[in-house]
User: Which sequence fits this backbone?
């Protein structure tokens, strides 16, 4: 469903611009091959001027050949009674194989956006299995969380969302994520100067963003699709368009070399800026207080625990899994 919302907008040229031809390569499974054929037919029949090719396949070593962007959307959902560690292992194997395929045949500067959950740890597995591709090129999608945070702040302040800037989602795409209102701005002013209700910011706002996906599932009966597709487009656009002065965007990226004292060797959502060349740099001019830092350490601990669960898939030894036994896997949002 995410792909169905995404593909036609990619083909339209709205992300990469009116002068950039596009070839779409669709990777599916044996089970989904007929659906892929149908989607490819619809894309061809839409006569997008920039769409030069639509190809489909079930072998990532064929589909990823020379790819410049890889959007890894598919992942197995958790079934009734399935332990979190088991699902981490199942999905981890998918992204391990996709990482190996990208490493073998994709462009050496391919940009990879991991959407399939738990996306942070899946991105880590993927990059660890693609040593010939810069680790910096791998992203876990936390843009939907950023968009949700912007909407909540705009609603509270009585402004439209384009007045909200400098919003960061720190950490994991899970219910431990940290929507940062300390550094965010509304119409150029610090959020805390516009929204003076600190209790609302620390409790209701934070929880609404963290649990928005779960509430949507309860209301809609299924997880986000259209808004996820929009956030993928936003994430790509933020990398291929220069970041406006004084603003930034959130993305789950590799932490080695980060300036924030966050643990190395995990994929952690942090504030980024881009010059528009597909690359990014981490924002240095951010501030922390005790509340923000304590929340960051909690989501960091969760990602470190997930990393131990998939050590056998990242080449770092034997998996030792000690995840809390709650009912929601990080990313089931």
Assistant:
């Amino acid at each position: 469903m995410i792909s169905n919302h995404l593909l036609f907008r990619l083909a339209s040229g709205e992300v990469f611009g009116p002068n950039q031809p596009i070839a779409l390569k669709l990777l599916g499974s044996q089970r989904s091959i007929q659906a892929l054929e149908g989607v490819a037919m619809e894309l061809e029949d839409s006569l997008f001027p920039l769409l030069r090719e639509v190809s489909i396949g079930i072998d990532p070593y064929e589909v990823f050949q020379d790819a410049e962007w890889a959007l890894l959307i598919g992942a197995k959902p958790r079934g009734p009674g399935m332990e979190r560690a088991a699902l981490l292992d199942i999905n981890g194997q998918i992204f391990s194989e996709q990482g190996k395929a990208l490493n073998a045949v994709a462009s050496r500067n391919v940009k990879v956006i991991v959407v399939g959950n738990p996306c942070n740890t899946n991105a880590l597995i993927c990059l660890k299995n693609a040593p010939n591709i810069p680790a910096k090129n791998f992203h876990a999608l936390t843009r939907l969380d950023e968009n949700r945070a912007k909407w909540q702040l705009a609603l509270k302040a009585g402004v439209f969302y384009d007045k909200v800037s400098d919003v960061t989602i720190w950490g994991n795409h899970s219910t431990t994520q940290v929507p940062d209102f300390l550094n965010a701005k509304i119409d150029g002013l610090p959020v805390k100067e516009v929204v003076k209700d600190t209790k609302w910011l620390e409790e209701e706002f934070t929880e609404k963003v963290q649990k928005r996906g779960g509430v949507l599932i309860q209301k809609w009966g299924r997880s986000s699709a259209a808004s996820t597709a929009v956030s993928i487009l936003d994430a790509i656009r933020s990398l291929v368009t220069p970041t406006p002065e004084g603003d930034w965007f959130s993305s789950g990226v590799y932490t080695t070399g980060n300036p924030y004292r966050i643990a190395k060797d995990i994929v952690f959502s942090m504030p980024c800026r881009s010059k528009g060349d597909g690359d990014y740099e981490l924002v240095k001019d951010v501030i922390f207080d005790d509340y923000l830092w304590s929340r960051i350490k909690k989501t960091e601990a969760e990602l470190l625990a997930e990393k131990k669960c998939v050590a056998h898939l990242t080449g770092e030894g034997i998996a030792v899994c000690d995840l809390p036994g709650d009912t929601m896997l990080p990313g089931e949002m």
Observations:
- The mean pLDDT is 94.
- Residues 98 and 220 are 31 Å apart (CA to CA).
- The longest helix spans residues 198-220.
- The chain has ten helices and 13 strands.
